[in-house]
């Protein structure tokens, strides 16, 4: 469930098996900024997350494991490629004791992960092997789930920190503020072919890469094309069950085998630092929004389908965002 009205913010709560309260934007950004002021949930096997994800399964993540209160994990995927899980990094931060603002500043030339306005990791297209730099219009997802649930694969349970003991719950991720800004203009974004490349994306009545947008976004938008299913799966699987175990990310500045091993991870990381209708300043609550509703089950997709998934149909249209800031949850 998501508990609104608390003095410290909206509480995304896991109380029992299969709970995975999530909110999903009904608009997209094509390059832009996404910031969330929040406190991660405690608990072995509990995963808090904020995600940008496209219809082509490009993805950019922040994740927090409940059993590791002194760190945050950054990650990314391109075109749903899950052949390796070596793109992650770990950043020291007191994620459960204090509220922090975690950000993603995403452009055609670089992607910055930030904490309290300070850049702690940078990725450029040149650092990525293959054409897997995230580059298609993204919707936003914020949620919590139990990776340690006994119904998950053993690899997922191990990655998330071990089995979840629901008797020690409930487990709350607390969100105070959300900020999104589109760096492209227009009403909608159109996939003009099946390449999944940034060059294939066209803005209706606008321009891709026009620069930071102002205002309150468009209005009267329906749900996003896929409706926003429950987020009860690890990164890169927001709409499907994972079939691949997730390995431990590399410590920022360490000597792991990240695909993007040359990317910038400054030492400051240790310091707190298809719808064609117009979009709106709204989020779609899924997996139980208020009260004690249960999370819906994720869509069952054939194993590893995302690894080879490109855009399924040219001509897909998604709604643009503008500037959305300071939602009261």
Structural features:
eight-stranded antiparallel sheet, Beta-glucanase-like, Glycosyl_Hydrlase_16, ConA-like_dom_sf, mainly beta, 1 helix, 329 residues, globular, 19 strands, eight-stranded mixed sheet, GH16 domain-containing protein, disordered C terminus
What does this structure look like?
- It is a single chain.
- The chain is 2% helix and 33% strand.
- It is an all-beta fold and 329 residues long.
- Strand 5 (46-54) and strand 6 form a beta hairpin.
- Residues 218-314 and 325-329 have low confidence and may be disordered.
- It has one helix at residues 154-159; strands at residues 2-6, 9-14, 22-25, 32-39, 46-54, 59-65, 71-77, 89-92, 100-106, 111-115, 118-123, 138-146, 171-182, 188-191, 201-204, 250-251, 283-286, 317-319, 323-325.
- The longest helix has 6 residues, at 154-159.
- The strands form three sheets. Strands 1, 2, 4, 9, 10, 11, 13 and 19 form an eight-stranded antiparallel sheet that branches. The chain has an eight-stranded mixed sheet with strand order 16-8-7-6-5-12-3-17, with no helix packed on it. A three-stranded antiparallel sheet has the order 15-14-18, with no helix packed on it.
